[in-house]
Amino acid sequence: MKENKKIFIYGGIIGLIGAILMKLGNPGNMGICVACFYRDIAGALGLHRAEVVQYIRPEIIGFIFGGVLAAVLGGEFKSRGGSSPIIRFVLAIFLMFGALVFLGCPLRMILRLANGDLNAIFGLLGYLLGIYIGIHFLKKGYSLGRSTKQTKISAYIIPILSVFLLLLLLIKPSFIFFSTEGPGSMRAPVFIALALGLISGFILQRSRICTAGGFRDAILIKDYHFLWGILGIFIFNLIGNLVLNFDTFQISFANQPVAHTNHLWNFLGMVLTGICSILLGGCPLRQTILASEGDSDAGITVLGLIVGAAFAHNFQIASSPEGVTPNGKLAVIIGLIVVILIGNSVVKDVLKERRKKEEVM
């Protein structure tokens, strides 16, 4: 119970930071959204040209800085990886497709609920179903293999890239794009956002909070420890919104910021996100923190998320407040087929290897 209280408070701090960032200028119901923030970064780098979602989000940089700091202080910054990188890259792309059809990562889904967006209920139900499907593969033996020790420099790639992004954010060279309208133009002050991101990254590294992991453990092994962290995020964000953002708080389906009311595709988009999160071993937030610890498998996942965000806008897959695009629907259907095929293929290979070992013994 003591550990549950601790992680509840950790989650609560993350939820409160989300409300503060929204009050300070981040888009509505988007104090923190890992998928949306990577999308904005992809746009700022010119990987897509959707002018309303282009900005180098300092919160992501802060997550990585905070994760590095916590990992170094805890003796957990270690170079590791090499576990099926191409599969992780593909899964990350489809995860981003699902999230941008829903319009938010699993963390934003919780924050949307905490600000009264009832559309996120369908996202939550889809996410839970996706996690349940992912657990089905885990029970059959799904595994992308063990990470092994890597060269030291591989651990520093993502932190170095985050430093590079910070320099681009501060210098603002002409080849970097910044939105002048839309969600990309709605920003908390840079250094405050960076500091709050750093605090969040530090907490997330120490607590291991993961939305996919929390629901997975509750369903698979009846361990509710991480669910307390998710509950903390929701409750503290709800309280923070009622205090700081009451003027925008509304319990409804309609007229919610950066959201649409197509319930079927809110549901199916998050089914895809849930499956991919389980097959990857963590939600986008957790992957970001793992990458900050020197995990190159998570690093390749982060790069896949950025590429997936670029594809989503270049190929008109991402949704908008007007609704879901035909390409978005097609991408989710194809994504569900592909990731299930990947899961089945990996399970078959794992079982085949097990049988070979048993025959040798």
TrEMBL record:
InterPro entries for this protein: Seleno_YedE, Sulf_transp_TsuA/YedE
Q: Which residues cross the membrane?
A: 7-25, 60-77, 89-111, 117-135, 156-178, 184-204, 225-244, 264-285, 297-318, 330-347
| Highest taxon listed in the record's lineage | Bacteria
The UniProt keywords, alphabetically, are:
Membrane, Transmembrane, Transmembrane helix
Q: Which Pfam families match?
A: Sulf_transp
Name the UniProt record assigns to this protein: YedE-related selenium metabolism membrane protein
- Report the source organism: Anaerosalibacter bizertensis
